[in-house]
Design a protein that fits this description.
alpha+beta, Catalase HpII,  Chain A, domain 1, two-stranded antiparallel sheet, 28% helix, EC 1.11.1.6, oxidoreductase, hydrogen peroxide, iron, Catalase_3
């Protein structure tokens, strides 16, 4: 094979890849196309890279609780579990770290998964987010590559700072999340003392079929508290399960953690004129433009009886919707709609939804049969296809998702907005001087092991574009000059 051949990225069947940065969509804002076989192959193969541990979010803790509606927002959504003030819905929450293995420490610097399963009267609704409002990338086609950088080097089996910063420096859209991760909020004091976010933009539809865009914010009632790196490191050595233990013990003694759930609501037409692309998960919506509106309150009041049966076998997918809540054109979300369900079918089995922790509290009527771990009567002798003349369950047109218009060429399309620096710069300028100093120290400590100065300088350039002081201080800490 020639050197030129080795330089070409290909699919697993050897075909050259034309675009590995942007998935194919129906127009710039259209949904992701299933014909993008390169995207599907990457996501499907990625889900099968670890057996049987979760590829991401392997280390987690969970608890049962309830959600109570505190404000009537039926003008925006027909979701039944949000239909009246005072209505309560049982739920299960799983918190997790993202990058580490199942035996890793709870107190590492890492985003935390914040996944909520609402057992509603119209089926399960999963809100699968993080403790940050943004993410490192904005297109699912880059997700397997990103997570590879967070895992271990294939030769040394050690964490690889060169890969981490090389990828980030070549993906400037990551700067916002990198700044949050390296700030004080990168290591929560406990799972109870952090906010949660749906992160993506979703679509709400009301009873009249009118739609709005929405973002979710879980605000901790315990207050935000974080760990100093020295304390986190000591806990990692002394009690690597510190967060898991803290959550269990708090609930056991009746100190039930709670979060207020608020939403930002954007009129549908504003998506075409807002100064940032509202579907770009590396960006936030200004709360001055779209203020937080209280929706309800989440309380965790019961520990699992068996960790494996409940926490480990719990499966969450952002594609688990109920009527009144739908997807947006967010490219990262569009990829997750496939990837999460596919991961569960591989890791837990085709019938993962029938396990007690995942089973809906409402009636389930499908024509799905057989498969591994089928524990019920498998539909008995009832009709097993549709349409049929035997009076089996059939579709209800009133529950069809709301239609939306798409246009444009089928192509691998990058997001229109390329401003990766304004929001990270704004965040940096919001920090106190003490917080800025700790942020810079953390970044400098994380970047020092990187072997190539070219990677460091490329990343310093991103910090500088966000805020000249930000870049200058990081450069000084690394003993480097600001690149021209």
């Amino acid at each position: 094979m020639s050197t030129d051949d080795k330089s070409k990225l290909t699919t697993s069947w050897g075909a050259p890849v034309g675009d590995n940065q942007n998935s194919q969509t129906a127009g710039a804002r259209g949904p992701t196309l299933i014909q993008d076989v390169h995207l599907l192959e990457k996501l499907a193969h990625f889900n099968r890279e670890r057996v049987p541990e979760r590829v991401v979010h392997a280390k987690g803790a969970g608890a049962h609780g309830y959600f109570e509606v505190t404000q009537d927002l039926t003008a925006f959504t027909k979701a039944s579990f949000l239909s009246e003030v005072g209505k309560q819905t049982p739920l299960f929450v799983r918190f997790s770290t993202v990058a580490g293995e199942n035996g890793s420490s709870d107190t590492v610097r890492d985003p935390r998964g914040f996944a909520v399963k609402f057992y509603t009267d119209e089926g399960n609704y999963d809100l699968v987010g993080n403790n940050t409002p943004v993410f490192f990338i904005r297109d699912a086609i880059k997700f397997p590559d990103f997570i590879h950088t967070q895992k271990r080097h294939p030769q040394t089996h050690l964490k690889n700072p060169n890969a981490v910063w090389d990828f980030w420096s070549l993906s400037p859209e990551s700067l916002h999340q990198v700044t949050i991760l390296m700030s004080d909020r990168g290591i929560p004091a406990t799972l109870r003392h952090m906010h949660g976010f749906g992160s993506h933009t979703f679509k709400w539809v009301n009873a009249e079929g009118q739609a709005s865009w929405v973002k979710y914010h879980f605000k901790t009632e315990q207050g935000v508290q974080n760990l100093a790196p020295s304390v986190a490191a000591q806990l990692a050595a002394d009690n690597p399960d510190y967060h898991t233990e803290d959550l269990f013990e708090a609930i056991k003694k009746g100190d039930f953690p709670a979060w207020k759930l608020c939403v930002q609501i954007m009129p549908l037409e504003d998506a075409n004129t807002y100064r940032f692309d509202p579907f770009d998960v590396t960006k936030v919506w200004s709360q001055k433009d779209y203020p937080l509106i209280e929706l309800g309150r989440m309380v965790l009041n019961r520990n699992p009886e068996n960790y494996f049966a409940e926490v480990e076998q719990a499966t969450f997918s952002p594609g688990t919707f109920v009527p009144g809540i739908e997807a947006s054109p967010d490219k990262m979300l569009q990829g997750r709609l496939f990837a999460y369900g596919d991961a569960h079918r591989y890791r837990v089995g085709a019938n993962h939804q029938a396990l007690p922790i995942n089973r809906p509290r409402s009636e389930v009527n499908t024509y799905q049969r057989d498969g591994q771990m089928r524990a019920d009567d498998n539909g008995g002798g009832s009709v097993y296809y549709e349409p049929n003349s035997a009076g089996g369950p059939s579709e209800t047109p009133a529950y069809k998702p709301a239609a939306f218009e798409v246009s444009g060429s089928a192509d691998s399309v990058v997001y229109d907005h390329h401003d990766h620096y304004t929001q990270p710069g704004d965040l940096y300028r919001l920090l106190s001087e003490d917080e800025r100093e700790r942020l810079v120290q953390t970044i400098v400590g994380a970047m020092k092991p990187v072997e190539q100065d070219a990677i460091k300088l490329r990343q310093i350039g991103h910090f500088y574009k966000a805020d000249p002081e930000y870049g200058t201080r990081v450069a000084a800490g690394l003993g480097l000059s600001i690149p021209e």
